[in-house]
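Sample entry (204 residues):
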Amino acid sequence: MIDFSAIERDLIAAYTGRLERRRRRRRISGAGALVIAVAGVFATVAIASDIGPNLQLDPTKWTILGGGSTDNGRGAYVHATRIEDGSQSTFMVEHDAGLAPYAAFLLHERTKAAADATSPVPVSPETGPLCTQAQLTRAEVVALRALGTFPPGAPADVTRGAADKAVADDFGDTPCRGLEYASEQARLVYAGTEPRPLLMPGAR
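Predicted structure, serialized as tokens:
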């Protein structure tokens, strides 16, 4: 089981600077390819990778295994091993400011695909074709409806199970790639971590 609090503490310690709105960093755990949204931050710490200033990791805590970028640097990723326990993770950043929500989703999918293709550990991909804008909107609506049983502002990690299950049940035997993304977006907005315009227009 992933300790979300420990992840947050490590990232805050590893990065310094200011938060930039609409910049999202995602950490994909090698075990189960779980995507966790955390704050995107500019860094001034020692660089442990050459991917760019937004994916700098503390070299006293992480060993960089490799990385790359997509869309002329708009998406980037780094594979790293935690020195303390040897666990492997992938960090992604997507510069989606100015992109429409569905275009931001497509950027995420391209970046994730590139990261998965070079992952040092096996990654279990979502099944089905890429979600259309209508399907992504539907998934976000379903997730938000499920989140209504939680108090506003409930942390995204707390509501994940309920939102993911509701979306999976709604799509049943016809899933598409992007349902996890839609559930996450809904949870982040419901938690107040991300602004409502992050959602598909039909889900706001």
